[in-house]
Design brief:
Layout lengths: L9 E6 L2 E8 L2 E10 L6 E4 L9 H14 L1 E4 L6 H9 L12 E2 L2 E9 L25 E8 L7 E5 H6 L3 H7 L3 E5 L1 H4 L26 E5 L1 E3 L6 E3 L6 E4 L4 H12 L5 E4 L6 E5 L3 E5 L8 E8 L3 H5 L1
Parallel strand pairs: 4-5
Antiparallel strand pairs: 1-2, 2-3, 3-4, 5-16, 6-7, 7-18, 8-16, 8-18, 9-15, 9-17, 10-11, 10-14, 12-13
């Protein structure tokens, strides 16, 4: 049985691995969220809510509660327009800034994560990362909506960084306490990065590269989640280019090998018309392939740094 913390005015029943949350107004049930945990270290599926419609404050609060508990939540069977995807995103914070993606026409806050059926370039984002950690105020979360999903392959892997830290051996934990990490986008988005001049194969996805990617930003390797108060590892090798400690490179490799272990992972399988959102503050993710000869298209929004939740 899973117990979910939900806002005042909601009632919870849990059985057979599911959590059913009822919204009530004046004693009358007006909506039910059916939350099914993945059975893994993170991840849940939510049914019983129509995301094409505006969400009231109680529904938003219940979804946020499920998001904070399960870290990765998916809403299947949601036929959304770009406007509806944008409206859903804004329930959880301002739009974040996506500096290295071109936006879709008419929607400056939506990027298309797109791979054509005949594409032969390297799979985009197939390494572990948290989104945009090279920014001074990185995004709180990411929303990804499946528009064209291949019949096989294209899963997204997630890894729970709260769980990884909690289970970390004491000697490794002691060596990273207080350590600051140096983040940069240079490995991916600089002119000589992975998606720069050397990325010569045609891509359907519109990726931008420029000199700004060489900039650096410092963040603690262990952070406190601003809403839950939980300790969590933050980001990983890739956007982290060094640790400000003796033998930082070797220590970063050791942390990477621990934080990405199988027992901390959840494999998410996509469906057409599925919206998935994850907590960028405490999970890593990576794309996978396995769908050569098939198109894959998802629309992405970023939930930006939310000052309101930090002040509450």
């Amino acid at each position: 049985m899973v117990v979910t913390v939900v806002p005042t005015g909601w009632h919870v029943a849990a059985s057979a691995g599911k959590v059913v949350v009822h919204a009530q107004r004046c004693g009358e049930a007006v909506m039910t969220l059916d939350i099914t945990p993945s059975g893994k270290v993170c991840g849940a599926t939510i049914r019983g809510v129509d995301l094409t419609q505006p969400l009231d404050t109680q529904t938003v609060a219940a979804i946020r509660s499920a998001w904070l508990e399960h870290l990765v939540i998916a809403f299947p069977d949601q036929v959304l327009t770009d406007e509806q995807l944008e409206a859903f995103t804004l329930n959880f914070g301002p739009f974040g800034t996506d500096p290295y993606f071109e936006s879709v026409d008419g929607h400056p806050n939506i990027a298309a994560v797109h791979r054509a059926a005949d594409e032969t370039s390297r799979i985009f984002a197939d390494n572990w990362h948290a989104d945009w950690t090279f920014q001074e105020f990185p995004p709180d979360g990411t929303c990804l909506y499946g528009k064209v999903i291949p019949a096989v392959g294209g899963d997204t892997l997630y890894v729970n960084q709260k769980a990884a830290l909690a289970a970390m051996p004491a000697d490794l934990r002691a060596r990273i306490d207080g350590v600051v990490a140096v983040h940069s986008a240079r490995g991916a988005y600089a002119p000589d990065g992975a998606y720069g001049e050397a990325d010569s194969e045609p891509r359907a996805m519109k990726i931008k590269t420029d000199e700004s990617a060489y900039a650096t930003q410092r963040h603690p390797l262990i952070r406190i989640h601003p809403e839950t108060g939980d300790e969590t590892l933050y980001s990983t090798a890739g956007y982290i280019i060094d640790l400000e400690t003796e033998n930082g490179g070797a220590l970063l490799k050791e942390v990477y090998e621990w934080q990405t272990r199988d027992e901390f992972q959840y494999r998410h399988k996509w469906e057409p018309n599925m919206l998935t959102m994850w907590d960028n503050r405490c999970v890593l993710h990576k794309a996978t392939g396995g769908y050569d000869g098939q198109e894959r298209l998802l629309h992405r929004t970023t939930i930006g740094y939310n000052e309101a939740v930090r002040a509450s």
